[in-house]
What does this fold into?
Amino acid sequence: TEQVAEVENVTNVGNDVVEAKPEVRISVDPERAAMSGTAPAAIAGQVYAMLSGTPAGTVTVDGVPLPVTIRFGGEMTTETLSALPVSAEGNATIADVGRVEEVDGPSSIVRQDTVRTATITGAITSNDTGGPIADVQAIIDDFEAPEGVEISSGGIAQEQGDAFANMAIAI
It folds into this structure.
């Protein structure tokens, strides 16, 4: 965003990326889980039940049946999650079959056609849109995106590119 904001004749540059917030990520090694007699999906279910609770029946108070849910009552830390038993025998923990770590995650996720996206926007203040578009494209071309990240242009830049491509086809 900062580089695009420095482009001549581009103003009101912003993005929809909200500052990251800490989240806990659990990564399970399927082979280690299988050797411990469990599967990643079963572990996900156990963690979900621990965090959201498991229905345990009802209790009647003053003639009114009330649902009972069992939830984890301690402090939720990476250490407590790592120590959670995950095998049927109870002799393996999440730490034995994977990794629990605190990472920075998005505080909100924007999707377009089910794909996570982040958008940088700006307004071109010149009648000559080609110059600013070329400057922004140079920034995009020089950016080394992490594996799995795709960068593309939209808006006026995409419309101009499509128009030029269509003109070339017509010629």
